[in-house]
Amino acid sequence: MQIGDRLPLISLPDDRGTMVDLSNYKGKKLILYFYPKDNTPGCTNEAVAFEYERSKFEELGYTIVGVSPDSPESHAKFKDKYALGFTLLSDEEKKLCEMYGVWVSKRMYGKSYMGVQRSTFIYDEHGTLAKVYPKVKPADHPVELLEEIKRGKIG
After folding, report:
1. pTM surpassing 0.85?
2. DSSP string of 134-153?
3. Which of 43, 64, 76, 146 is catalytic?
4. Is 97 an active-site residue?
5. Where are the domains of the chain?
6. What is the mean pLDDT of each run of 10 residues along the chain (155 residues)?
7. What are the residues whose beta carbons fall under 8 Å from the beta carbon of 139, sequence distance 6 or more?
8. Which CATH superfamily is domain 11-150 in?
């Protein structure tokens, strides 16, 4: 996805198993963040940091949506465990991850595997991609993003 691209026409199940069409977010400013896996240290830090700042993002007109390849059931448990008040979408077939270029080859301990590159995509209220944050640091990213929005660097 490139700056200026529109929200894709794709539907994914949310944490309740309800199908959600991304185009439903047109008319709202959207923070679409991709993360590797529920209940892992980095992903938990990022989700909790987004939740901690959620009301501030909402005051500025932004909706937060997280995406990972985990199942809706896994997302539901993750949301409940950490009292997350935003939507998590399940991309088990990695269609959206591939569309955004975040399903990539990674290396750990000398072994290659496929996984999600932690990234965030910011859309304006017209459904147009305004900013991309590739390879973000989980705990710091939500606070840094909020500061950029407040300084008028986005939106």
Report:
1. yes
2. -S--TTTHHHHHHHHHHTTS
3. 43
4. no
5. 11-150
6. 89 96 92 96 94 96 97 97 97 96 86 90 94 88 92 76
7. 42, 45, 46, 49
8. Glutaredoxin (3.40.30.10)
